[in-house]
Amino acid sequence: MESVPSPSAFTQSPGTAELMEQILYEVKRVVVGQDRFLERVMVAMLAGGHLLVEGVPGLAKTLTVKTLAQTLSGQFKRIQFTPDLVPADLVGTRIYNQKTGDFSTSLGPVFTNLLLADEINRAPAKVQSALLEVMQERQVTIAGQTHFVPQPFLVMATQNPIETEGTYPLPEAQVDRFMMKVLVDYPTDEEEFVIVQRVTGPRVEPTAVGTTDQLAALQRECRQVYVDPSLVQYAVKLVSATRRPANVGLKDLAPMITFGASPRATINLTEGARALALLRGRSYALPEDMSDLVPDVLRHRLVLSYEALSEGLSADDIIIRVMAKVPPPPKPLQHEKLVA
């Protein structure tokens, strides 16, 4: 029988909670509301994953990522995807120098810490594939030479749900490389009031409170967060239920799902639960850390059938039904929240 680590093993290193609190404080000085979205961005950063974000324009998606880069003294670049882009516009190319007669390598905008790929579905398949390859391999090969992107490296790609003319849908196999798909909604009336006051008032500049080296250290610490085997089994059962819903008593859902989630979903649920636990001040994951992330991790991985679409079912509707049939395990650790 596997031994459970003692409570003394679940301690954060000194300064971890303070650093994350300072980062969030600085971002919140600039960005109003969007707490859930910001939390997901932080989870992706700590877990080393990438985000696909869907939301109408003007909801502070760019501002959030740019501010986060400033607080971490990291590089931030934004690419506006358009139908006339070519892969070299992203990854770089070789340039001939007439004076010297030599070729030099000009690296593209993907060589940064935080990359915002705006309206990724406006670019043709070749460009989408070039970006998704960098996301997976974290390197680019130009003229036989391999160039590694800076670490840490986070891609946040956005899609506009209200405009589909002139867009190229992301292939299901490639969209699987995103850790989460987050839906960003409009702010509340109170938040919008504060947004207007803040934007029309004196400009607020975020202060750098950390470095990319400290973020890399946080990522390493995140990998040490304890995940109980029962939680991993919970992730496996959830993902398996999207492939074979009849096994959990959801036989009527089988015709609605063409393809279920891949093993990447199980991995991302586990890594995401670790990151969310670290954000919440714990060095061990609880069931709610994982269940909170299930819709974001699974919604873009389900390929629905025409029957589901004709009945107006969304991926979120199916995920809610699956979660109701696959209960989370009892809390494996009953320790009080540990304070660093």
Mind explaining what this structure looks like?
The protein has 340 residues and is α/β, with parallel strands linked by helices. The protein folds into 2 domains: 9-84 and 111-223, Rossmann fold (3-Layer(aba) Sandwich); 225-328, Magnesium chelatase subunit I, C-Terminal domain (Helicase, Ruva Protein, domain 3, Orthogonal Bundle). Helix content is 41%, strand content 14%. It contains 14 helices and 11 strands. The protein has helices spanning 16-30, 35-47, 61-71, 88-91, 125-137, 172-175, 189-200, 212-222, 229-243, 263-279, 287-291, 294-298, 306-310, 315-325; strands at 51-54, 76-80, 92-97, 102-107, 114-118, 139-142, 145-148, 154-159, 180-183, 257-259, 303-304. The strands form 4 sheets. It has a 5-stranded parallel sheet. A two-stranded antiparallel sheet has the order 3-4. Strands 6-7 form a two-stranded antiparallel sheet. A hairpin with a 2-residue loop joins β6 and β7. α2 (35-47) crosses α10 and α9 (229-243) packs across α10. It is globular and about 70 Å long. The two termini are 30 Å apart. Keywords: Hydrolase. Residues 254-319 form the ChlI/MoxR AAA lid domain.
What does the radius of gyration come to? 21 Å
Globally, the shape reads globular
Please name the CATH topology of the largest domain: Rossmann fold
CATH superfamily placement of the largest domain: P-loop containing nucleotide triphosphate hydrolases
CATH class of the largest domain: Alpha Beta
Query: How far is the N terminus from the C terminus?
Result: 30 Å
Number of helices: 14
CATH architecture of the largest domain: 3-Layer(aba) Sandwich
Low-confidence stretches: 1-11, 335-340
Task: Record the strand order, biggest sheet.
Answer: 2-5-8-1-9
Question: Fraction of residues in helices?
Answer: 40-55%
**Class of secondary structure makeup:** alpha/beta
Report the order of strands and helices. Answer: HHEHEHEEEHEEEHEHHHEHHHEHH
